[in-house]
Amino acid sequence: MSRVSSLVLAGLLASAGLACRKAEEPVAPAPGEGQQKAAEAPAAAASKEIVLGQIMPYSGPASAYGTIGKLHAAYFAKLNKAGGVNGRTIRLISLDDSYSPPKAVEQVRKLVEQEHVVGIFNAVGTPSNSAIQKYLNDKKVAHLFVSSGATKWADPTHFPYTIGFNPSYHVEGKTYAEDLLKRNPKAKVAVLYQNDDFGKDVLAGFKEGLGAKAAKQIVAEASYEATDPTIDSQMVTLKGSKADAFLNIATPKFAAQAIRKVADLKWKPTQYLANVSASVGSVLTPAGLDKSKGITTIIYLKDTTDKRWDNDPAVKEFREFMKNDFPEGKLSDGINIYAYATADTLVEVIKKCGDDLSAENLIKQAASLKDFAPGLFLPDVKLNTSPTDFEGFDQLPLAQFDGATWVPNIPIK
Amino acid sequence: MTNSYAATLPRTQMPALLRYRRFLLLLLGLAALSIVPFALEDFWVFQLTLVMASSIALLGLNLLTGFNGQISLGHGAFFALGAYTQAILMTQFSVPYALALPVAGLLCLGFGMLFGLPALRLEGLYLALATFALGVALPQLLKYRHFEAWTGGVQGITLSKPEAPFRLDLTPDQWLYFFVLALAVVCFLTARSLLHSHVGRAIVAIRDQPIAAAAMGIDVARYKTITFGVSSLYTGIAGALTAIAVQFVAPDSFTSLLSIDLLVGIVVGGIAQLPGAIYGALFMRFIPTLTEHLSKSATGAIYGVILIVFVYAMPYGIAGFVTRMFMRLTQAMKRRGS
Amino acid sequence: METFLHQLFAGLATGGVYASLALALVMIYQATHLVNFAQGELAMFSTYTAWAMVSAGVPYWIAFVATLALSFAAGAAIERLVIRPMANAPILSVVIVFIALLLIFNSMAGFLFGTDMQSFPSPFPELEAIQNPYFSAHEIGVLVVTLAVVFGLYSFFRFTSLGLALRAVAVNPQSARLVGIRVGSMLALGWGLSAAIGAIAGMMVAPIVFLDPNMMVGVQVYAFAAALVGGIDSPLGAVLGGFLVGVLENLLGAYVIGTELKLTVALALIVVVLIVKPSGLLGKTAVTRV
């Protein structure tokens, strides 16, 4: 036999050997393995570490939200150095899903089946979370504090392992409608909305808030795609409707374009802005601070760049953290304030869990918050959850932009 | 291309192992693939199932772009069409998945041929734009309010994974793996026999010398349209299988990036070479995971660099590289003095 | 009526944006007979370098010129280092290299400059004399610059021997070499010029759409369509295509189909135009000898 063919044969034998070795590894899955693994988790977690997973859009169209994951990494690194929670460190494994649902499914399967996480924390994006919701509930893994305002995260009957965090988009829209009716009952409204879950949800809530008159009062609706380069055409249509109120349900880039276009078109409606785009640094500054005066949004977080909070201990702690532990994050970016608040909430839930760190207990504790508020919440804004009510926010205060910061409509203590 | 890479040693002079290499590799491959689901965790079984489904999609695209020369930057649209048809039939009409699959495939066949008709007028760059337009426009169509009752709109549709039939002791992941494996084998065998027939020769002739082919009496229009249809059939089936595996379809799952990924897959795998579909699928599925490991913030850049390196080192794809290595091997054997 | 005029002019303004990137695509096609899918990302990256300079305090016009020079050099370097070794590879492999470049530049921009949205200054002052409700000063500036670039490109290709040499290399590199044209230098020149034009496009677009790594993604699709509709070998055609696409998209969205299917219908119409007139509106039909 020639040398080459013996080499080939050797190679085949070697790969056969490798295949046998793989077969020896005791990882053959049996039905019900998922439950078994989940039950093992508290035993493992009763040791020194809690393992949680996360999916984040670190790349792709929503990469601006990737800073949430980055802040969390810095937050938990700092927390673990200080001893963790109840003597245990928190390991957060954060993977990139590029805002694509199939990739989210893949990453979550990896987290659950290979890393054996007990929960998925603060995952970003309605489509990605929609894709993983059923899987996580089937596998009995905690789907904690979903970073999206869709109403489907507050459905304990069908999805008992899923609990959201963000104020519901639906309730947000409704709040704007109720406020508008108070200020101008006969207002004619023009709406710009992103053609996806988020945009349609806020709009639906808004219509519900207007009630029977919705059809007559909304004189123009224009949607846009996240891939559209500009929304000038939509804005021209909306202005042409001669509405005196404008509802801006857009993500940061388009919200800024819209605010600027409103001013350029010399249109002066009562403006409402979706909370996701209420960041002073990322949206209102590029749009033009003077052009943003008078805009209303719902607000539940303190604006940490506002001098009014200079003596507030939670804000001081946040500013210190941003300076020392997360210097690459922008202080004026509202997304970072949000991320810090959700991390605080998670720590509270883990504290309440004590020694039982199973997925079931994590959800149980998350669904029994009584008047809890992370330090960065505005005073009087509290989270209240119960086993039948997974929606944490009961009321949403409004705020107006005064040219420099958001001024809440509630008294500051 | 196969001509220039034909073995330089006559078959009678090759040792038995090399002479029957294709058959032996197939046997070995199938054996390994059949053992794998019992040796690996469900997650890897899931990943391999997706690889096999992707390879069917790449087979389809390679048929159109590699063997027939019609460049398509929008095959993600047919992938999505197959996926959504499968999802709608399974959820809205309670059709069993095995029956919904051929329906999804046939629908894609029809649409592919329909799109192939106007595509006849477009060449090269212009066809690329037209197909790209299709790929870009499809997510918007899927979100369209009047189709929402069917497509689930932006929310998408959730599917259930089928259980193993005949009460076989397999997990749903394992069952789906074998189902997809069987389909992949069927698809490859039919593609191979298609390409080795007179139809295949006509298809390749149209790519290489369209005018000469027409002059010889080949009905260029008919073959081009058929190829478009068959290519969409394959890609649609792949989409349907992926939908079952992932258990979720939404417009965001099928952006134009998917079409670009498919094109990258066939070029890296090997244009106009059947095994290229497998190599391409492996590349598509595992290299991005590798790049994410290397750097979370600059994954795209690293992926791009890896792409360039692959395309430099293997301008005819991984399959071309393998064939060239084989050619070198037989040359060495010949020189050894058989 | 006023709204209609607004829509029309908004379409022209957006069309100017598409036209400027389409010109870069035309340039690269004229020089190499290839369409560079990464053109938008290169333009975006150039704009980020300009932004970095302006943020560091460099005056706008100096940053502008410096960015043009840097982009030219970068384009030529890419041709030399990345594209030239692929000269004998199958064309689809080259397309993959373009896609790889697209991914690299998109990712590097986010990595180096952050993924937050930034505002980019406009060099065109809001003069009283040109104030009107339809165009902002910047949009008028974009139109002027785009037309200037068209004029420059047209004259370059039509009246200079360098332009002729460039086109010759793209059409028939072997014969061009025999006539004494340095093919390599011409290709590098073509890439450099198109990168520079792309940089101009980016710096014109950024004040309107705000600067972020995905700024050019939406624009590129329309620019590609515009270039093909107008005729990929005609600078004037690209501009015409850009305006056509911009206005069409706006009017369709506002009056015909609503914003939800705007993109689909616009692209469908473009495909119809191409089917009817395969080489674009102002393109020359290529006659191949059998």
Per CATH, what is the topology of the largest domain in chain A? Answer: Rossmann fold
Write the CATH homologous superfamily of the largest domain in chain A.
Response regulator
Main β sheet profile of chain C: none
H/E series of chain A: HHEHEHEHEEHEHHEHEHEHEHHHEE
The name of the CATH architecture of the largest domain in chain A is: 3-Layer(aba) Sandwich
Number of domains of chain A: 2
- Largest interface by Cβ-Cβ < 8 Å: A-B, 44 and 44 residues
**What is the helix tally of chain C?**
11
Instruction: Give the fraction of residues assigned to helices of chain C.
Output: over 70%
CA radius of gyration of chain C? 19 Å
Q: What amount of the residues of chain C lies in strands?
A: under 5%
User: What portion of residues of chain A is helical?
Assistant: 40-55%
- Net shape of chain C: globular
Q: From the helix content, strand content and strand pairing of chain A, which structural class follows?
A: alpha/beta
Largest sheet of chain A: 5 strands, parallel
What would you note in describing this structure?
The complex is a heterotrimer of chains A (413), B (338) and C (290). By secondary structure, chain A is of the alpha/beta class. Chain A folds into two domains: 3-167 and 318-366, 3-Layer(aba) Sandwich (Rossmann fold), CATH 3.40.50.2300; 169-299, 3-Layer(aba) Sandwich (Rossmann fold). Chain A contains 14 helices and twelve strands. In chain A, helix 3 (66-81) links the parallel strand 1 (49-56) and strand 2 (89-96). The longest helix of chain A is centred in the N-terminal third of the chain and has 22 residues, at 3-24. Chain A starts with a helix and ends in a 5-residue tail after the last strand. By secondary structure, chain B is mainly α. Chain B has a single domain (6-337), classed as ABC transporter involved in vitamin B12 uptake, BtuC. Chain B is 74% helix and 1% strand. Chain B is built from 15 helices and two strands. In chain B, strands 1-2 form a two-stranded antiparallel ribbon. Chain C has 290 residues and is an all-alpha fold. Chain A binds chain B through residues 1-2, 4-5, 8-9, 12, 15, 19, 22-23, 25, 27-31, 33, 58-59, 95-96, 99-102, 105-106, 109-110, 113-114, 126-127, 130-131, 134-135, 195-197, 200, 225, 227, and chain B through 15, 17-18, 28, 32, 35, 38-43, 46-47, 50, 136, 140, 143, 153-156, 158, 171, 173-174, 242, 246-248, 250, 252-253, 255, 257, 292, 296-297, 299-300, 329, 332-333, 336.
